[in-house]
Every structure is written in C-alpha cells, then in structure tokens.
C-alpha cells in the first residue's frame, strides 16, 4: 500500500486527492492524507450563493482553449453545468480621463486583428496609431530581432518593440495587472505571454500572425471564457464528495517535512507520520519554508514575489438595480499609472459576462483590488472594503445604491509574480526537486495561474506517483 501526503487543500491539492481516490477505486493500492491548514477546501476557489446570486470569491472562469477543466467537469458529471461567456456583448473598458472608454474590438490582448478598429479610438494618440500601422511593415525586422530560444525579457520590453511605449502603458499594463496583479516592467514575457513569443519567432509581426490564424479557424467560434453555472466552487464540492472524509484533515497545518530512511516524515499539529511520496501544494512562501531544511537551493528558487488581492462582490436585486446604468460589456480596468493608493484594478460586470449569475433584473458587480490598495485593505473591516469598492465603482458607474448582498475575501500573497528568467528558475528547481524522490511541487507559483493547468498538473502528479 503506497502512502501519499498532499499538503495544501487549494484546487491543486483537492484535484490531486480526487485523482488518488479514482486510482484507489480502480484497484490501485494507495492511501493518502490531505492536509489543509484552514477550515475548508478549495483555497481561492470558493462560491457563495445568495437569493439567486452566484458570487465568486476568487477566480470566476477559465480560458476555454485550455481543455483540462472542461474534461474534469465531464468526469465529475458536471457537463450540464458548463456555460460559455456571453461573447456577443464582450467588451472591456478602460477608466480613461474619468470616463469609461471601450478597448477597440477585434483585439487579442494589445494586438488588433483589424487596424481600422483603432482608427477612431480616443485611447491612442496619432503616434500610437502610427506604431500599430507600421508593425506589419516591420515583420522582417521584428522576426530578425525576435527573442531567441533560451532568452527572456519583460512584457514591457516585448510590447514596446512592437508597438511602442504608449500602447505598453495604455493597454498592456492594465490587462496584465488585471490578471496577475503585476507590473509589465518585471513580468516575464515567456512565462505569461509565451504564445505571442512563438508568433513573433514565426511571423515577426503579431498583427499579421493573428490575421493569418483568424483565417484558419473553421466552424463556430469558441467563447473566450467558460465557467460552471452554479459557480466554480461546484468543482471542489463535487471532488470532495468522492474523497473519503477520513483522508481529509482540516485545520491541520504541516509544520515540517523530513527525509528519513528512504521515506518522508511529516510533522503536523497532531504528530508525525510517514509517507512514500509528498505533494506540496501550498503557497510559495509556505513551500519555501518547508523546503529550506531539505534543500536550501531549491527553497531559494521558490523565492518569488507574490502580490495580494482583495475581492469585493456587490449584488443588487431588481428593485435596487432599477436606476443603475451599467454599460454593455464584461467590465473595466484601471490603468496602473492612473490608479491611486486606494484604487481598484478591475471591476467585472458579472451578470453580463455570464448568465445564471443574478436573478431577473438583478446586477452583480465585483471589484478587484491589488498591489498597494490590497495591502492597505488587508487589515480593513468588511464594511470598509465594501464602502471603498462602492466609492471606486462610482467614479466609473455613477453613485451606487446600498447592495442587497455583499461579500469580501482577502487573499494574501495569492498572485505569484513571474519575473524575467522565471522559466529558467523553474527548470533549475525541477532539477533540484528530482533529487528528492517522491516529492512534487504543485500550485500557481510555477507554470501558470489558470485553473485548467493547475488541475492537469495535479492529476498528472497523482498518476505518475503510482507508476
């Protein structure tokens, strides 16, 4: 009987434990313990449902083109729960000069497929429009100077090379801040925009590359985002039902991991136990502490900056929403260069992005605070955070009524910052961890923050641990 410890009950840890449960049900000789320091499983994946509102406390969807979350949903019997984003009204705004200005249509990130879409946009000066217009003409030059294999640079450096400084500040900076809570001047382009790096190597011009790819797409266009009708927390709830309760230990943090006599010994608040393999699926700062006695160099490679996030969801029933004027679209971003100490980075119009999120006539908004504002709000009361969210949203949407329901979640150090050279550090980390047989590192500190990738890596680790 092989014994495996799973340390950390976020989405990676829960998925790994669920896969082990499936292996056991298929006749594999395995038992495991899932350790979680908190009172619930799922980590940042959490859904609250109130009076017909589906309120996400962390991520609200996954990128459709990555298949693993949908595959897991099907295996869990949740196929009927899968819903696509309402892309017919997909529009993202920037809070620009005190008003909401829509990003031009037909854009992927900061790259327009149709140059006419930027012609009349007030977001760009003539210099920025000229940079866009000239980028296809510079295809040969850009291909010749494309980032070679083994080299990395910041997102800002990459975007400036193609479109100049203004586009970098106006579009790239708020888009990346809204996803990673990070700074384009330090984020690794290979770690967060690898598909664009590949396009540059092949085509030089990103605009020409996306145009050609668009002509090759056959059949109906897929939605950009996908979620579950009843919320992403349904993933955790469904997996937890298949994990034997005796295998789960809530409120039991792991204090130390040691290698003794060819096996792994874990010390927790309840004592010590031995295992054949250990999956460490904790936040990076916790993983670093656990690794330090085992391999100081590996622990140093896990040392990366991580920003915090504060999320505030505000729900308005039909009566209170009657006078609200929410523009058609998915939400808006606040450019970091104009964001103040207390500014939110993004606001999602949740009930417009997805159906089944609010009762008829209701409105559901969600504010995302990161960087400096998150640090300030981490210690604030829920009432203060909700008040700050209403004040910030009012700058773009006008005065808002008191919400019918509201929730606040604080996620300290939840957004790892993949700095330039990140993938090289991860390769070096893999080499160090390979010298510790049976140890696997899981979670968003390594190869991406999206749910599909985290689920895929967790399932693969469980399968490989059993040969």
Describe this structure in words.
The protein is an alpha+beta fold. It has three domains: 2-44 and 232-304 and 419-465, 3-Layer(bba) Sandwich (FAD/NAD(P)-binding domain); 105-216, protoporphyrinogen ix oxidase, domain 3 (Orthogonal Bundle); 306-416, Protoporphyrinogen oxidase, mitochondrial, domain 2 (Polyamine Oxidase, Chain A, domain 2). Helix content is 37%, strand content 23%. The chain contains 17 helices and 22 strands. It has a seven-stranded mixed β-sheet with strand order 8-7-18-19-20-17-21, with helices on both faces. A five-stranded parallel β-sheet has the order 12-2-1-16-22, covered by helices on one side. Strands 5-11-6 form a three-stranded antiparallel β-sheet, with helices on one face. A hairpin with a 2-residue loop joins strand 13 (254-260) and strand 14. The longest helix has 26 residues, at 155-180. It starts with a strand and ends with a helix. The mean pLDDT is 94.
Which CATH architecture of the largest domain would you pick?
A: 3-Layer(bba) Sandwich
- CATH class of the largest domain reads Alpha Beta
Radius of gyration: 23 Å
CATH topology annotation of the largest domain: FAD/NAD(P)-binding domain
**Poorly predicted ranges:** none
Strand order of the largest sheet: 8-7-18-19-20-17-21
Q: Helicity level, as a percent range?
A: 25-40%
Structural class designation: alpha+beta
% residues in beta strands:
15-25%
Q: Span between N and C termini?
A: 13 Å
Tally of separate helices? 17
Q: CATH H-level name of the largest domain... which superfamily?
A: FAD/NAD(P)-binding domain
Biggest beta-sheet profile = 7 strands, mixed
Global outline: globular
Number of domains: 3
| E-strand count | 22
Quote the average pLDDT.
94
């Amino acid at each position: 009987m092989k014994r495996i410890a799973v340390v950390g009950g976020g989405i990676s840890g829960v998925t790994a434990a669920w896969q082990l449960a499936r292996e056991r049900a298929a006749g594999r000789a395995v038992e495991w313990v899932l350790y979680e320091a908190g009172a619930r499983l799922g980590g940042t994946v959490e859904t609250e449902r109130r009076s017909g509102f589906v309120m996400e406390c962390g991520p609200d969807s996954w990128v459709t083109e990555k298949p693993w979350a949908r595959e897991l949903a099907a295996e869990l019997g949740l196929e009927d729960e899968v819903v696509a984003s309402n892309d017919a009204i997909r529009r993202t705004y920037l809070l620009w000069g005190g008003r909401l200005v829509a990003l031009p249509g037909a854009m992927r990130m900061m790259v327009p497929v149709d140059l006419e879409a930027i012609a009349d946009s007030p977001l760009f000066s003539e210099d920025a429009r000229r940079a866009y217009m000239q980028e296809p003409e510079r295809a040969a030059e850009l291909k010749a100077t494309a980032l070679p294999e083994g080299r990395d640079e910041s997102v800002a450096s990459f975007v400036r090379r193609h479109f100049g400084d203004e586009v970098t500040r106006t579009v790239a900076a708020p888009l990346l801040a809204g996803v990673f809570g990070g700074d384009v001047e330090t984020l690794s382009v290979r770690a967060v925009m690898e598909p664009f790096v590949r396009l540059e190597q092949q085509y030089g011009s990103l605009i020409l590359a996306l145009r050609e790819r668009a002509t090759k797409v056959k059949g109906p266009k897929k939605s950009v985002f996908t979620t579950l009708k009843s919320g992403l927390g349904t993933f955790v709830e469904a997996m937890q039902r298949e994990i034997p309760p005796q295998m789960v230990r809530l409120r039991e943090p792991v204090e130390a991991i040691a290698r003794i006599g060819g096996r792994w010994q874990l010390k927790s608040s309840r004592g010590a136990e031995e295992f054949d393999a250990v999956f460490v699926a904790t936040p990076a700062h916790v993983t670093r502490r656990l690794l330090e006695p085992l391999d100081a160099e590996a622990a140093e490679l896990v040392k990366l900056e991580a920003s915090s996030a504060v999320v505030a969801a505000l729900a308005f029933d039909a009566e209170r929403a009657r006078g609200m004027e929410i523009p058609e679209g998915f939400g808006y971003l606040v450019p970091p260069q104009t964001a103040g100490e207390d500014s939110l980075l993004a606001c999602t119009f949740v009930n417009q992005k997805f159906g089944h999120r609010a009762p008829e006539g209701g409105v559901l908004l969600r504010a995302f605070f990161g960087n400096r504002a998150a640090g300030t709000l981490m210690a604030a009361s829920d009432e203060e955070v909700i008040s700050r969210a209403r004040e910030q949203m009012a700058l773009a949407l006008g005065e808002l009524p008191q919400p019918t329901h509201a929730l606040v979640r604080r996620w300290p150090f939840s957004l790892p910052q993949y700095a330039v050279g990140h993938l090289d550090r991860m390769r070096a980390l893999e080499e160090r961890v390979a010298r510790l047989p049976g140890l696997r590192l899981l979670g968003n500190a390594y190869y991406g923050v999206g749910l599909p990738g985290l689920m895929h890596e967790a399932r693969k680790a469980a399968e490989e641990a059993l040969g």
